[in-house]
């Protein structure tokens, strides 16, 4: 690709998170330090977005997710494509195919492991041949987890001369609303799994996103409602743990098992001490189990989709986004029992306000910071961008990565 007009194209700019990201890009890169454009399937919606935000000189491109020729023409004009068009299992295949074949770098905010695995199997060879960097999970799932582990392991190497063979992440605080797009992705995944025994087995495998021949066999911790002595709090399962843990394990595999072949990783939510903490942990655990069961059956799924859950295009208000936050604590243990702890925080609601900023900075990192000599293929945020992305997130996206005394 020698005739690129843009560094970054936001595909799906009129989606809920795409609109937030477009506004953020305008604020961050309005001085033309990065050349960018917006794209989607509806010109009228793109024009409305441009007018609402007050964009000046930002080009609009029209391409439907199923129109391969239009996607090829779009990719030919840019170095990086950012996609917010989900559920990706329904709408994302063709764009990944085109990027992998054409050498166009790509990132998204999917949390759909079954789709990521399918894309790896279908397009990894093409991406390696073309030099395209394909990086899924560049939002709240799974940048804070993946880079949090990366950061802690680096600090462990400096302090102890070795990495941790076990890391526990605890969600100490989280505040923010859910979006219909995320709910739609979860509903689609449950639909697929309910009729596919092989997929159900795959979704139970914590190493399902690791490359073939990874060799990992360690039995990962099963997180249930429990009292955590280390954190002095009751804990409950964390809904994002399934995708986050898979990305962390893939990072381990892609970095030549730098965390160890028997590395253990788990995530859970802190719910507090005493009887009230126990009740909260029980409510979270039962609520998650009930939602999955409800979505697995067509009648209850219809009720949840139509009467309870937010629909695609719906999400937290601007006030909720600005008032949101999260605080994640990572505690690592070396084979000798030495402990180290770090904290990752974000200053917006995790799923949308903060995710939009993370996704934008990941795209900018791909466009400007990653050495051109880096091999093509399916990477993770930690293995491809690592410290470069951490620097961007701390400088421009309201995240912090800090060691804590124990």
The SSE string, one letter per element, is EHEHEHEHHEHEHEHHEEHEHHHEEHEHHE
- Apparent shape: globular
Roughly what fraction of the amino acids lie in strands?
15-25%
Number of domains: 2
Count of distinct strands: 14
Low-confidence stretches: none
In DSSP terms (H or I, runs of 4 or more residues), the helix count works out at 16
Alpha carbon gyration radius:
20 Å
Largest beta-sheet characterization: 7 strands, parallel
The SS-based structural class is alpha/beta
Helix content: 40-55%
Q: What is the mean predicted local confidence, pLDDT?
A: 89
CA-CA gap between termini = 51 Å
Strand order of the largest sheet: 3-2-1-4-5-6-13
Give a verbal description of the structure.
- The chain is an alpha/beta fold.
- It folds into two domains: 6-140 and 353-397, 3-Layer(aba) Sandwich (Rossmann fold); 143-349, no CATH class.
- Helix content is 48%, strand content 19%.
- The protein contains 16 helices and 14 strands.
- It has helices at residues 16-29, 43-53, 68-75, 88-91, 93-102, 113-130, 143-160, 180-194, 197-203, 241-254, 274-296, 298-308, 318-323, 350-368, 381-384, 386-396, and strands at residues 6-11, 36-40, 60-62, 78-83, 105-108, 133-135, 166-175, 226-228, 233-237, 264-272, 325-333, 339-346, 377-379, 400-404.
- The strands form two sheets. A seven-stranded parallel β-sheet has the order 3-2-1-4-5-6-13, sandwiched between helices. Strands 8-9-10-7-11-12-14 form a seven-stranded mixed β-sheet.
- Helix 2 (43-53) links the parallel strand 2 and strand 3.
- The mean pLDDT is 89.
């Amino acid at each position: 690709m020698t005739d690129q007009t843009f560094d970054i194209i936001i595909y799906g700019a009129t989606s809920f998170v795409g609109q937030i990201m477009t506004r953020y890009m305008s604020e961050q890169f309005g001085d033309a330090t990065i050349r960018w454009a917006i794209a989607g399937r509806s010109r009228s919606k793109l024009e409305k977005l441009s007018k609402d935000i007050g964009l000046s000189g930002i080009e609009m491109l029209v391409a439907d997710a199923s129109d391969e020729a239009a996607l090829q023409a779009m990719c030919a004009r840019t170095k990086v494509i950012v996609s917010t068009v989900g559920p990706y299992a329904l709408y994302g295949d063709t764009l990944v195919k085109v990027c992998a074949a054409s050498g166009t770098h790509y990132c998204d905010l999917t949390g759909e492991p079954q789709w990521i695995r399918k894309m790896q199997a279908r397009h990894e060879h093409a991406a390696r041949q073309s030099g395209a960097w394909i990086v899924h999970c560049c939002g709240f799932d799974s940048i804070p987890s993946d880079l949090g582990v990366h950061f802690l392991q680096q600090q462990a190497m400096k302090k102890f001369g070795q990495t941790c063979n076990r890391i526990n992440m605890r969600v100490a605080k989280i505040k923010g609303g859910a979006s219909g797009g995320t709910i739609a992705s979860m509903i689609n995944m449950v639909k697929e799994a309910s009729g596919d025994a092989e997929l159900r087995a795959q979704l139970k495998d914590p190493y399902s996103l690791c490359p073939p021949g990874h060799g990992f066999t360690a039995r990962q911790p099963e997180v249930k409602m429990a009292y955590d002595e280390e954190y002095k709090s009751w804990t409950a399962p964390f809904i994002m743990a399934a995708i986050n843990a898979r990305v962390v394990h893939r990072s381990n595999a892609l970095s030549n098992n730098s965390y160890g072949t028997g590395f253990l990783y788990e995530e859970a939510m802190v719910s507090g001490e005493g009887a009230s903490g126990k009740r909260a942990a029980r409510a979270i655990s039962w609520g998650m189990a009930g939602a999955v069961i409800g979505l697995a059956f067509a009648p209850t799924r219809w009720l949840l989709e139509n009467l309870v859950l937010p629909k695609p295009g719906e999400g937290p208000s601007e006030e909720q986004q600005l008032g949101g936050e999260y605080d994640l604590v990572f505690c690592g243990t070396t084979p000798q029992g030495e402990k180290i702890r770090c904290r990752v925080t974000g200053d917006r609601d995790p799923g949308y306000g903060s995710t939009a900023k993370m996704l934008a900075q990941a795209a900018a990192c791909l466009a400007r910071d990653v050495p051109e000599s880096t091999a093509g293929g399916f990477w993770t945020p930690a293995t491809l961008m690592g410290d470069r992305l951490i620097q961007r997130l701390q400088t421009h996206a309201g995240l912090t990565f800090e060691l804590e005394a124990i």
